[in-house]
Specification:
By secondary structure, this protein is an all-alpha fold. It has nine helices and no strands.
Length: 196
Amino acid sequence: MRKQPRQARSRQMVERIVAAGREVLVEDGYDAFSTNRVAAAAGISPGSLYQYFPDKSAILDLVVDRYTEETAERVAAAMSERIGGIGIEVVRDIVDALLTALEADRALLRVVAEELPLARSGPRRAALERRVGELAATYLLARPEHSRRPVPSVSTWVTVLAIENLAVRWVLDQPAITRDQILDEIVALVAGYLLS
């Protein structure tokens, strides 16, 4: 951001710009995203927008950062709440929480997953995967008897990427597979690979 908003009115203006940025990104897509469209959606002049954001990338980065953080928080909270549990029930609950987090804004997920250049979305996705992987590795290290894999950091990396990709594709593709069916299949996959 060009300047940090200090007064309530300035913070409200920034929130208005970010909300408009999210709206434009979802409705028009990444390629059509522009400061003029964001300013119009926010009901302000481009000059007012430029007081806070130097360019469209700064708005885009904040929109995507917030989305990634919201998703990460939902999944991390679900994992933290269930860290004391054991086995298949924990896996099912965590995957269910991930699906819920991804479904919360399917339209923005589609843009982030399918339209943003990897250079822009990759580091954020990697940070989310690392965070979830660390929580999963902590669980496995605390309960080594629950895992059949010898190196928790490796097996959690494989598991997190498999679950993430399956969940994202299920949410975006909306195949003829019910939520219970995808949960059952992912649990079976994880149980077969990871759980003893």
